[in-house]
Amino acid sequence: MPSSGAHHRCPLRPPPPAPRWPAGMNYSRFITSVSAARKASPIRLLSELMEKAPPSLISLAGGAPNPDLFPFKKATVAIGHGSAIEIGEELMKRALQYSASAGIPELLSWLKNFQRNLHNPPTASYSPEQGQMEVCITTGSQEGLGKVFEMLINPGDNILLDAPAYSGTLAALRPLGCNIINVPSDQHGIIPNALKEILSTWSPDDSRHLPKFLYTVPNGCNPTGNSLTTERKKEIYQLARKYDFLIIEDDPYYFIQFEKVICPPYSLAVLFLVQERPKI
Ligand SMILES: Cc1ncc(COP(=O)(O)O)c(C=O)c1O
């Protein structure tokens, strides 16, 4: 998880103008039928309700273990710049107990604020119906990718990959039976003209065959080490609008660059949501 070191702090950007479209992006055409069929598990919904209930309420519906029996009692995590994070007994009990599926509410709101300070995406101020920014905690980038790929890919789907690609991504993609199309890159990341040429084999209306998404590692790409420039992000985003594909940014190295990051660039999507409204 990113640290809150001083050089990562970035002044809050002015809030973007309110969205001009009544409802948020419609992502339903991207979602597989298996994913679309998923319903929230009642026992997980109950965990969410219990978070809001007074401590006097004892639910016999779920199997919450007695927190006094948890093996870990407290912890201190030393941070690189000298301070420490203390996890006391009460917090440790909460951390080890069942909680809402998306994560412990305080951690989620910390992460949402962090996203606001870092990227200030316009979706942060949307209503849930408009497609408000959401955060889901995973055990790492690989788990997040696995979830996203399984949510989006049907066998035979075309997908675009920043090449050469990270081997873990390839391992997650290959069993899903998609058609992987490599997009060449150089020292500044994906080459927009090469992407344009690949996409020109489809009509922008051919939603059945157009690639569903482009996967890229925008900073310190594994294995090439290259990073996408802002200019290229803009060009790629224009192509994403024209050919209606999603952009999946896998950005595990943003906070561990050798040179200090003064003010982070917008991510691909946020950069252009702020500058230019997608046509819906
Ligand atoms: C580009 C890229 N994505 C994802 C991962 C996996 O990240 P995590 O260890 O957070 O699952 C790696 C690890 O090497 C990586 O290089």
What are the key terms here?
two-stranded antiparallel sheet; 280 residues; disordered N terminus; 3 domains; Aspartate Aminotransferase, domain 2; binds pyridoxal-5'-phosphate
Question: How is this structure best described in words?
Answer:
The chain has helices at 33-36, 42-52, 89-96, 105-118, 141-152, 167-173, 192-199, 230-243, 268-275, and strands spanning 75-78, 84-87, 158-163, 179-186, 189-190, 213-216, 246-249. It is an alpha/beta fold and 280 residues long. A five-stranded mixed beta sheet has the order 5-4-3-6-7. It has a two-stranded antiparallel sheet with strand order 1-2. α7 runs parallel beside α8 (230-243). Residues 1-23 and 273-280 have low confidence and may be disordered. The site of pyridoxal-5'-phosphate has 9 residues, from α5.
Summarize the structure.
The protein has 280 residues and is of the alpha/beta class. Helix content is 31%, strand content 11%. α5 (141-152) packs parallel to α6 (167-173) and α7 packs parallel to α8 (230-243).
Name the helix and strand elements from N-terminus to C-terminus, one letter apiece: HHEEHHHEHEEHEHEH
Gyration radius (Cα, Å) is 21 Å
Can you tell me the overall shape? globular
Look at the structure and give the CATH class of the largest domain: Alpha Beta
Spatial strand arrangement across the major sheet = 5-4-3-6-7
Derived structural class:
alpha/beta
CATH homologous group name of the largest domain: Type I PLP-dependent aspartate aminotransferase-like (Major domain)
What fraction of residues sit in β-strands?
Answer: 5-15%
Number of strands: 7
Distance between the termini: 34 Å
CATH architecture assignment name of the largest domain: 3-Layer(aba) Sandwich
The tally of helices reads 9
Biggest sheet details: 5 strands, mixed
Small-molecule binders here are: pyridoxal-5'-phosphate
- Structural domains: how many: 3
What would the average pLDDT be, to the nearest integer? 83
CATH level-3 fold name of the largest domain = Aspartate Aminotransferase, domain 2
Poorly predicted runs: 1-23, 273-280
Helicity range: 25-40%
Pfam families: Aminotran_1_2
InterPro entries: Aminotransferase_I/II_large (IPR004839), Class-I_PLP-dep_aminotransf (IPR050859), PyrdxlP-dep_Trfase (IPR015424), PyrdxlP-dep_Trfase_major (IPR015421)
Organism: Strigops habroptila
Domain Aminotransferase class I/classII large: 91-259
